[in-house]
Design goal:
This protein is an all-beta fold. 0% of the residues lie in helices and 41% in strands. The strands form 5 sheets. Strands 1-2-3-4 form a 4-stranded antiparallel sheet, with no helix packed on it. Strands 5-6-7-8 form a 4-stranded antiparallel sheet, with no helix packed on it. Keywords: Glycoprotein, Repeat, Signal.
């Protein structure tokens, strides 16, 4: 068993990503995914939008030159295909592991009306059901919606609206599968995680500081890992507020925080 507990200890690996001369993330390595060979894919806003590294951090290749507006989210399915979310491009794209486009959901540069519930207005992330291949897209900066698609990218259903009640969202910023029958959404500006069935029925909510990202562990590790955003300007310099990773059990019980009491 590799399940994290409150006694598990982590250490950073300085300089893990070995970037070749001329390759940079330009300060925005926005999302990370790992394939079946333990290669690491960094979706970023730099010179190589899809930067691929081996497990030791050696740079393998880059893809997607000039093809994205503002990279935001990445996920990899069991076949090692890539799913990429471009928020300012207003589209979600499936690509092969070699970077060839399989399909695109949405039209690049053409958002739906702001907070209309359509598809898309600055989508943020995608989750993939490991058995069915169904897609769940969080949408986003200009919407308050979760969209569900079949494995071919055909729309199945959507749920959510602006607000603070259960099932409402204030910037759904990230989404992950939770087991095989639920999804968990980082409802960022409502300072909570919301859990739903894969059919969009509200299950529960978990209060947490400014959640930017959420993912469930792999294999025997079913814990939740939540990236917490830095505090707003009025609270800058206050200790123990964000810029950390919260580790929760799959039931939402607190395990530990990774990171220091202040950013940096």
């Amino acid at each position: 068993m590799n399940t994290t507990t409150s006694q598990t200890r982590y250490e950073p690996v300085p300089g893990w990503a070995k970037l070749p001369m001329g390759v940079t993330f330009r300060g925005d390595a926005t999302s990370v995914a790992v394939d079946s060979k333990d290669n690491v894919y960094v979706f970023n806003r730099g010179t190589e939008p899809i930067a691929v590294f081996d497990v030791d951090g050696n740079f393998l290749k880059g893809m997607g030159h000039g093809e994205f507006v503002r990279p935001h989210g990445i996920e990899i399915d069991r076949n090692d295909d890539l799913y990429l979310v471009d928020d300012n491009g207003h589209f979600v794209q499936k690509r092969t592991n070699e970077g060839q486009v399989v399909f695109t959901i949405g039209t690049k540069g053409e958002p739906c009306d702001w907070q209309s519930g359509g598809m898309f207005n600055r989508p943020t992330d995608v989750a993939i059901h490991p058995d069915t291949g169904e897609l769940f897209v969080s949408d986003g900066y200009g919407n308050s919606r979760i969209h569900k698609f079949d494995p071919d990218g055909q729309h199945m259903m959507s749920w959510g609206e602006p607000g603070t009640d259960p099932g409402q969202f204030s910037l759904p910023h990230n989404i992950s599968m939770l087991g095989l029958d639920k999804v968990v959404v980082a409802d960022r500006e409502n300072f909570r995680l919301q859990i739903f069935t894969t059919g969009g029925e509200f299950v529960e909510q978990i209060h947490i500081h400014h959640p930017m990202s959420v993912t469930q562990g792999k294999g025997d590790d079913d814990n939740l890992y939540v990236g917490e955003m830095i505090p707003p300007p009025v609270q800058q310099g206050v200790r123990n507020l964000g810029a950390m990773i919260a580790v929760l059990s799959s039931e939402g019980d607190y395990q530990q925080h990774l990171g220091g009491p202040l950013p940096g």
